[in-house]
């Protein structure tokens, strides 16, 4: 299914994978800040934490919209199956994101006596969105049963021990991303406190990676075959070694006076996990058996939507990069960015 010599389903799969990866990286650290809020009680420190992401948090969620819209435009069958199977955790995720967004806007306007309510909304929304995303990830890896090209499971089939564990695992990854972002954007006592939180979070994330790496092939023979037989084994072989190297460098970077290195290395760990996820499921858009070519829309629709995507994506990348450039530097409670 291609047009003018272009493999449109493949190209759209790459676009959607890129959008989802950008969302996980960029919204991951500001969700992580919400997860870290309960460990920081001081009101001024919480102000600083929120100020580090206040200029960029809503732009980060653009990538979620792009990934969902791209799935609907390019792979409508997959879109219908995923929403039918996972509508409950998707609704929980959206409600969590709404609560977070409202908390962002109202927390700074609320009187000090009422601000704790918005802190709780921020924490609860971040936790709900993260747990829902982790459960969606676990259910997706487990596979969605199909019958006559429609979802054939029950409303709560997504809730399994594995999806509960991936929800916990994604929460750990987001919390570490948030901690690494705060190390980059803050200084003084708050930064030292976050460094102390980052060390156990890094060990916990490594344990999660090891557990998922053992659990997944043991319960999914198709993924085990992909990991340990050519050609998939050739792509997957470097991943464990790179994870060990990135973790070792991360722990070293948390010593002394770290700045950008913990954030970059945590991004590397998340990217490696995402790479392993892609290698495990490719070329299925709905595991275990619906491929990108089977789920793709008509070539005319794919080509038409691609024109819009090629116009929109550079614009999103451009204004995102400009926003981060403008709001670069450290943040404090009294002066904001400096």
Q: What is the mean pLDDT?
A: 87
Strand order of the largest sheet: 1-2
Q: What pattern of helices and strands is seen along the backbone?
A: HHHHHHEEHHHHHHEEHHEE
**Sheet bearing the most strands, described?**
2 strands, antiparallel
Distance between the termini: 52 Å
* Low-confidence sequence ranges: none
Q: Outline, from the CA principal axes?
A: globular
Structural class: mainly alpha
The radius of gyration is 20 Å
Number of E strands: 6
- Give the strand content: under 5%
The number of distinct helices, counting runs of at least 4 residues, comes to 14
Oligomer designation: single chain
Question: Helix content range of the residues, please?
Answer: over 70%
What does this molecule look like?
With about 350 residues, the chain is mostly helical. It has helices at about 10-35, 45-55, 55-60, 60-75, 75-105, 115-140, 160-185, 190-220, 220-230, 230-235, 240-255, 260-280, 290-295, 300-325; strands at about 145, 150, 285, 290, 330, 335. Strands 1-2 form a two-stranded antiparallel ribbon. A hairpin with a 3-residue loop joins strand 3 (about 285) and strand 4 (about 290). The longest helix is centred in the N-terminal third of the chain and has 32 residues, at about 75-105. About 40% of the residues are buried. The model has no long low-confidence stretch (mean pLDDT about 85).
Keywords:
14 helices; about 350 residues; two-stranded antiparallel ribbon; mainly alpha; about 5% strand
Task: Describe the protein's topology.
Blueprint: H1 8-36, H2 43-53, H3 57-60, H4 62-74, H5 76-107, H6 115-142, E1 146-147, E2 150-151, H7 161-185, H8 188-219, H9 221-228, H10 232-236, H11 238-253, H12 261-281, E3 284-286, E4 290-291, H13 292-295, H14 299-326, E5 331-332, E6 336-337
Antiparallel strand pairs: 1-2, 3-4, 5-6
Helix pairs in contact: 1-4, 1-6, 1-7, 1-12, 4-5, 4-14, 5-6, 6-7, 7-8, 7-12, 8-9, 11-12
């Amino acid at each position: 299914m291609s047009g003018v010599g272009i493999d449109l389903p493949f190209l759209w799969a790459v676009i959607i994978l890129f959008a989802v990866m950008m969302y996980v990286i960029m919204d991951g650290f500001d969700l992580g800040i919400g997860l870290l809020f309960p460990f920081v009680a001081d009101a001024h420190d919480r102000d600083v934490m929120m100020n580090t992401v206040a200029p960029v948090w809503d732009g980060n969620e653009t990538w979620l919209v792009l990934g969902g819209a791209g799935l609907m435009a390019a792979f409508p069958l997959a879109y219908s199956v995923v929403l039918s199977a996972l509508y409950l955790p998707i609704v929980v995720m959206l409600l969590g994101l709404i609560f977070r967004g409202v908390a962002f806007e109202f927390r700074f306007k609320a009187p000090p006596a009422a601000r704790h309510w918005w802190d709780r909304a921020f924490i609860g929304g971040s936790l709900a969105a993260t747990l829902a995303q982790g459960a969606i990830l676990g259910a997706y890896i487990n596979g969605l049963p199909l019958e006559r090209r429609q979802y054939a499971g029950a409303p709560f089939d997504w809730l399994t021990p594995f999806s509960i564990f991936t929800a916990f695992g994604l929460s750990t990854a987001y919390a570490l991303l948030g901690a690494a972002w705060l190390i980059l954007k803050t200084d003084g006592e708050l930064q030292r406190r976050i460094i102390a939180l980052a060390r156990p979070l890094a060990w916990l994330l490594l344990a999660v990676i090891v557990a998922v790496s053992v659990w997944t092939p043991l319960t999914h023979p198709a993924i085990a075959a992909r990991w340990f037989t050519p050609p998939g084994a050739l792509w997957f072989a470097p991943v464990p070694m790179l994870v060990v190297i990135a973790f070792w460098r991360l722990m070293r970077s948390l010593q002394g006076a770290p700045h950008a290195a913990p954030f970059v290395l945590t991004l590397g760990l998340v990217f490696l996990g995402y790479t392993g996820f892609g290698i495990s499921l490719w070329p299925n858009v709905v595991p275990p058996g619906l491929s990108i070519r089977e789920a793709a829309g008509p070539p005319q629709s794919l080509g038409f939507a691609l024109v819009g995507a090629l116009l929109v994506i550079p614009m999103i990348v451009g204004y995102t990069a400009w926003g981060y450039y403008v709001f670069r530097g450290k943040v404090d409670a009294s002066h904001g960015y400096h």
